[in-house]
Specification:
Length: 81
């Protein structure tokens, strides 16, 4: 059993050292591609957030206008009597 564990550990070490370290490095082109992709994603999220905020603002303004109109109608009713 000990021999099998030792052989497995030896095989794992050999496989780990076989992977080149340069495969993990990022080339400048890859870095530029990732950076532009991330900036596009950020811009898209920002645009979406701005649209949602503008929509909420319009909805709030519409609600306020309706409430003001309702209050004015009630005011004119009570003063008209």
């Amino acid at each position: 059993m000990k021999r099998f564990v030792a052989l497995a550990l030896l095989a794992a070490c050999c496989l780990a050292s076989a992977v080149p370290a340069s495969a993990q490095r990022i080339t400048p082109e890859e870095n530029a591609r990732r950076s532009s992709k991330a900036s596009k994603k950020q811009a898209k999220m920002l645009k979406k957030a701005n649209k949602q905020q503008a929509k909420a603002s319009r909805k709030y303004a519409k609600k306020q206008a309706k409430e003001n109109a309702k209050a004015n109608r009630q005011l004119h009713k009570t003063r008209g009597r």
